[in-house]
Specification:
Oligomer: single chain
Shape: globular
CATH architecture of the largest domain: 3-Layer(aba) Sandwich
Number of helices: 17
Structural class: alpha/beta
Number of strands: 14
Helix content: 40-55%
CATH superfamily of the largest domain: Nitrogenase molybdenum iron protein domain
CATH class of the largest domain: Alpha Beta
Largest sheet: 6 strands, parallel
Strand content: 15-25%
Number of domains: 3
Radius of gyration: 22 Å
CATH topology of the largest domain: Rossmann fold
Length: 429
């Protein structure tokens, strides 16, 4: 078997100016509270207190697989009937819950009050509550708030809302601060360590990661801060960083060998890294990544994939599957298309790709059935019904929970798409 390691040339325009089908209607999305599942593992001294119902608590316990004897760094302040009926002072109840929590868990340094559908329906002002509690407990504990409600958001926007709540609290750069790079977006520790080593080998620094593993290690922000997005769903976080005079580094996202190389190259060009040094540092991991992907390219090339809007990862993942795995794109749907942040990705999609933004699930199901793709990437709510109809599906949420960024994970990313296809082939034998 031969391995094609030659990079593909970038198209001149791709889908940069392709009209986008705007969809509005019935939606199938996961709750924004689920972002806590990876955020509470990332920020190691934080606690996420959901102000919601027992349904919120059951969702988090089942989604995270939390056992009864585990002590995770998230919980639910359960709103009872008296709270919902306005018979109890919700703020007094919340103050008592927070006091008991901080007494029991003195290791907490950052406390997030996370809004939910129930707390927003009764108009509980968690911003004022967080401000009041922060005055009481700061500097021992910093109290912030954000909304994880699933009423108007898709589930990855929970991270965007969380990081956006932190940005105003980041310290300002000093007047003599050097040019720095901030990688924005929650990454598994193993992936963050890999990127940190690559940046060090390239001579790029100082480099910080946001969110930091500990709330006390937050980076300073100012006009000498350049930030590189690691996730495509951080539109509000990016806007707030730019309001603090930080500057975004335009780049594709680090999925696959090609995307990771282009992402690193954007930072290398900013810091004046020579071409020889860049090639010397990235050549070996780039070749390993392409070789790992090739194993699955043989199984997936030529097959058609349909993306339902779910995680906002759809556009960069479609680019990866098309350019590195050889799959054809039936439709690439995304809950939100931030054209500025996705400009480099859209330019790499093949011209004529059908793009959709938002959701009208019935119309999208009709198009999917008409296309009869070989693989459908969708949320949990659509996967089982489509499997019953004979379509092969991939749960999009698994692409968020699994380490998929960077060179060393490129083969794992391709395998996630190959598994359901191979499973169907085995069942048909």
């Amino acid at each position: 078997m031969t391995v094609d390691l030659a990079p593909r040339p970038a198209p001149t325009q791709g889908c940069a100016d392709t009209p986008v089908l705007k969809e509005r209607g019935q939606r199938e999305v996961f709750c924004g509270l689920t972002g806590i599942i990876w955020l509470h593992r990332k920020i190691q001294d934080a606690f996420f207190l959901i102000v919601g119902s027992r349904t919120c608590a059951h969702l988090m316990q089942s989604a995270a697989g939390v056992m009864i004897f585990a002590e995770p760094r998230f919980g639910t302040a359960v709103m009872e009937e008296r709270d919902l009926a306005g018979l109890a002072d919700a703020n007094e109840e919340l103050d008592r819950v927070v006091a008991r929590l901080l007494e029991r868990r003195p290791d907490i340094r950052q406390l997030f009050l996370v809004g939910s559908c129930p707390s927003e329906v009764i108009k509980l002002d968690l911003a004022k509550a967080a401000s009041r509690l922060n005055r009481q407990y700061f500097p021992q504990v910093q109290v912030l708030n954000y909304s994880g409600s699933g009423i108007e958001t898709t589930f990855t926007q929970g991270e965007d809302a969380c990081l956006a709540a932190i940005v105003p609290t980041l310290p300002a750069e000093t007047a003599d601060a050097p040019k720095s790079l901030m990688v924005v977006g929650s990454l598994p520790d193993v992936v963050e360590d890999q990127f940190a080593r690559l940046f060090a080998d390239l001579g790029i620094g100082p480099v910080s990661f946001f969110p930091a593993r500990r709330s006390t290690d937050v980076p300073a922000v100012g006009p000498n801060t350049h930030f590189l997005l690691a996730q495509p769903f951080l539109s509000e976080t990016g806007r707030l960083l730019e309001d603090r005079a930080a500057r975004r580094v335009p780049a594709p996202f680090p999925f696959g060998a090609e995307g990771t190389t282009a992402w690193l190259k954007a930072a290398a060009d900013l810091f004046g890294v020579s071409g020889d040094r860049f090639d010397r540092v990235t050549d070996a991991p780039h070749r390993r990544a392409r070789k790992a992907v090739q194993h699955y390219r043989d199984r997936l090339a030529g097959k058609r994939v349909f993306f339902f809007p779910d995680s906002q990862l759809e556009v960069p993942l479609a680019r990866f599957l098309n350019r590195e795995v050889g799959m054809r794109l039936a439709e690439v749907g995304s809950p939100y298309l931030h054209r500025q942040h996705l400009a480099e990705e859209l330019a790499w999609l093949p011209e004529g790709t059908r793009l959709s933004e938002g959701q009208h699930v019935d119309r999208q199901l009709d198009r999917c059935r008409e296309d009869q793709p070989d693989l459908v990437v969708c949320g949990l709510g659509l996967a089982n019904p489509l499997e019953v109809e004979g379509l092969t599906t991939k749960w999009s949420i698994e692409l968020v929970f699994t380490p998929v960024h960077g060179y060393e994970q490129a083969g794992d990313l391709a395998e996630l798409f190959a598994r359901p296809v191979l499973r169907k082939q085995r069942l048909e034998v």
